[in-house]
Amino acid sequence: MFDLPLPIHPTAQARGVPPHFPSCDTDPNYPFGLTLSRRAPADLLSGRAASLVLARFATLADAMQGAIDHAEGMTPDAAPQLLAILDRDERLVLAGAASNHAVAWCQPVTSAAEARGVVTEASQLRGQAGRATAWGEPDLAQRLRQRADLLDARLVDPLWRAFAARALQVAA
């Protein structure tokens, strides 16, 4: 899949320049929320690891464009960020890595069997990351966790799988 570095940041603040979203994008009635993953150790330990909602959108196409706008607003030296689009029930619709003024969308799984395979591979990568940490290889452990996170980003809710895959085809 993707081999992008997604470091665990020491703070929960978004890196780079915050995107400019029109004020209407905060309407809680909009069905799609563009979120930024909070994976900082402080957030994980404090229980604030829930995703940070950047904006809400009326359509999936608008949310995808919002993600691209967010990526374009990032500084060139900013670390990649894992963005996710969630529906109003907090189900994963689509996810991708934002960096270098673009978003690399993760292709959604197509079946339950593929989802099980992705979960197994991500679990194995996290196990390898734990062993790498124990061996004193923090950089390798971080890369393995990042790869596992990108695999997890493919685990789109079954309700949205076909729709998200089609949206990516149309966007391409």
Structural commentary:
The chain has 172 residues and is an alpha+beta fold. It has a domain of 101 residues. The chain is 40% helix and 17% strand. It contains five helices and five strands, in the order βαβαβββααα. Strands 2-1-3-4-5 form a five-stranded antiparallel sheet. A hairpin with a 5-residue loop joins β3 and β4. α3 runs antiparallel to α4. It is globular. The two termini are 17 Å apart. The N terminus is likely disordered.
Range of helix content: 25-40%
Low-confidence stretches: 1-5, 7-20
- The counted number of beta strands is 5
Largest sheet: 5 strands, antiparallel
Averaging pLDDT over every residue, what do you get?
A: 81
Rg (CA only): 16 Å
What structural category do the secondary elements indicate? alpha+beta
- The percent range for strand residues is 15-25%
Distance between the termini: 17 Å
Net shape? globular
Widest sheet: strand ordering: 2-1-3-4-5
Number of helices: 5
Query: Element order, helices and strands?
Result: EHEHEEEHHH
